[in-house]
TrEMBL record:
<feature type="transmembrane region" description="Helical">
    <location>
        <begin position="218"/>
        <end position="244"/>
    </location>
</feature>
<feature type="transmembrane region" description="Helical">
    <location>
        <begin position="280"/>
        <end position="300"/>
    </location>
</feature>
<keyword id="KW-0472">Membrane</keyword>
<dbReference type="Pfam" id="PF05982">
    <property type="entry name" value="Sbt_1"/>
</dbReference>
<feature type="transmembrane region" description="Helical">
    <location>
        <begin position="251"/>
        <end position="268"/>
    </location>
</feature>
<feature type="transmembrane region" description="Helical">
    <location>
        <begin position="124"/>
        <end position="145"/>
    </location>
</feature>
<feature type="transmembrane region" description="Helical">
    <location>
        <begin position="157"/>
        <end position="177"/>
    </location>
</feature>
<protein>
    <recommendedName>
        <fullName>Sodium-dependent bicarbonate transport family permease</fullName>
    </recommendedName>
</protein>
<dbReference type="InterPro" id="IPR010293">
    <property type="entry name" value="Sbt_1"/>
</dbReference>
<feature type="transmembrane region" description="Helical">
    <location>
        <begin position="33"/>
        <end position="53"/>
    </location>
</feature>
<feature type="transmembrane region" description="Helical">
    <location>
        <begin position="65"/>
        <end position="85"/>
    </location>
</feature>
<feature type="transmembrane region" description="Helical">
    <location>
        <begin position="97"/>
        <end position="117"/>
    </location>
</feature>
<feature type="transmembrane region" description="Helical">
    <location>
        <begin position="189"/>
        <end position="206"/>
    </location>
</feature>
<keyword id="KW-0812">Transmembrane</keyword>
<keyword id="KW-1133">Transmembrane helix</keyword>
Amino acid sequence: MSSFLPDILALFFLFSLIIRRLGVNLAFQPATYQLLTYVLLLTIGLKGGQALTSEFTFSLISNSLIVIALGVVLTLVAMLIIHTFSAMNQSDRVTLAAHYGSVSVGTFAVALSYLQLKGVSYEAALNLYVALLELPSILVGLWWLNRNQSSTSLKTIFGHQSLMLLLIGLVIGGLYGDIAEPMVKQLQPLFAVMLALYLIHMGAVAGSKFGEFGSNQLFLICFAIFMPLLAAAIGLGTALLLGLSIGGTTLLMTLAASASYIAVPAVFEQAQPNANVAQALVASLAVTFSFNVIWGIPLYHHIAGVVA
C-alpha cells in the first residue's frame, strides 16, 4: 500500500496545506520557525564542510564556477520568459526572475532527507553548491535594476541569515572535520524531526497564500510550474557536465528547480521597496515549493536514475 502513497515528507506538507485551507492554521510563531531553519541550515552546513575536507580537489573550484554560471543562466532564462509572456513592469519582472534564479534551502533539505530514506548517496560538494546558488540571481537582479546607480551595498546582498548560517556551518565543519562528528551525530536525529515540523509550517503558510496571486494569477501559476521543469532540465545538463552521481544529479536538479522564498525576498524588500515581492513569494512558495515537495523531487530522482 505504501507504494501508492506520496513520499512521507510530502505528506507532512500536504496535510498541513489542506488543513489550512479548511481553516485550521498550523503555522508556528516566528521565533519557532527561526529555530527550525537554524537547525536545518547549520546541520546541512556542518555535514557539507566536514565531507568537503576529505573530498577537496582542485576540480571543485572549476565545478563551483560552473554552478555559479548555472545560477546566472537560470536567472536570465526566467527573465526572458517573464519578459516575453507577461505584462509586468521591469521591477516586478526582475524580482520574480531573481526568486527563480536562486534556490530554496528548504526544498534542498527535503531532497536530502528523501535520498537518505532511500539510501542514495551524493557528493558532499552539493552542500557547497547550495550556498553558491543563493548569490548569482541576487547579484544579477540588483545589478540589472541598479545599473545606472550605485546604491546597493554588499551588506544588503551578502548579509542574510540563511546564507551566513550555511557558510558558518561549512567553515566550522571544514576546519574541524572529524572533530565535529559528535555534534553532527547529535544534530542528525533532530534534523528529521525539525524537517517534519518545518514542512508543517510551510504547508500552512502556502495554504494561506493561494488566494493572493492578484491580476497576474494565470501567468504566475503557469510560470511557477513550467519554470521548475525547465530549470530541472538545465540542472540535469549541468550535472551531466560535472559527472555527478544519481544522488548528486537529483540534488542539483532539485536546486535548479527550486525558487527562493527566504533570501531573495529579504534582500529585494530592502533594496527594491517598490518591487512586488509578495507576488513573487506567492508563486515560489504556494506553487513551486508545493510542486517540488509533492511531485518534483521523486520525478527528478527518477530522471536522474535513467540518465545519470
